[in-house]
Write the structure tokens for this entry.
Amino acid sequence: MLFVNAKGVKIPAIGLGTWELGGPSCANIVKQALRLGYRHIDTAQVYGNEREVGEGLRASGVARDEVFITTKVWTTEFRSGDLELSIKDSLARLQLAAADLVLLHWPNPEVPLAESLGALARAKELGLTRHIGVSNFTVSLLDQAAALCSQPLVCNQVEYHPYLNQDKVRAACDRHGMALVAYSPVAKGQVGKDATLKAIGKVHGKTPAQVSLRWLVQQGVVAIPRTSRVERLSENLGIFDFELSQAEMSTISACAHPGGRLTNLSFSPQWD
């Protein structure tokens, strides 16, 4: 497994995203992923599956200290006091003493950024999480967060795939020494039908999804593809035995277009 280093933290470059997974199938996917070699699992309070993620971790037989567990605090819990309690609730559901990484899931302009980041930093200081970070932050918000937070922010988790140019956010993450973690890294399955990615994949004996994931990893980006199908787990992990040329990397990057963003909610920030 390849790792991405940020602020001295080693984050496994491929993780399992668990959005929309629930119940026994979620626990089973987590268990199977860990048995196959995954060492990074991503969940969130709002996903409603932290309990099942914890069950899958325990059922896998993989030692806790070998697995990087991320969860995310929902925007309604950003007030000082509320945030700490919500993380404790997450840990109770996961049945963990501490998370490896806790993120603010989305910006919440109704709570001062200094307050939410102060609460997040305190959660780290209390030992509720080993590391902290943010998600869905713009360049401006990243700059503010880096200046305001008393503890190192190790990542910004954002949508990123071949159809969405994230050069500005990537540059901001680099500037602050933060990792970029890509959700929807295969564009919610859209890459599977892409002729360009199919052609590049054919050269390497790989699927379009594997090409997309490899494109991300070669940029030093962490990718967390979600799947509900056990057979996809090995495919998403099978990206470390080939390398894309610089020309192929550029061709994939050129797939980006203005309508490429797939997640744009009513409370989303003004994207870069």
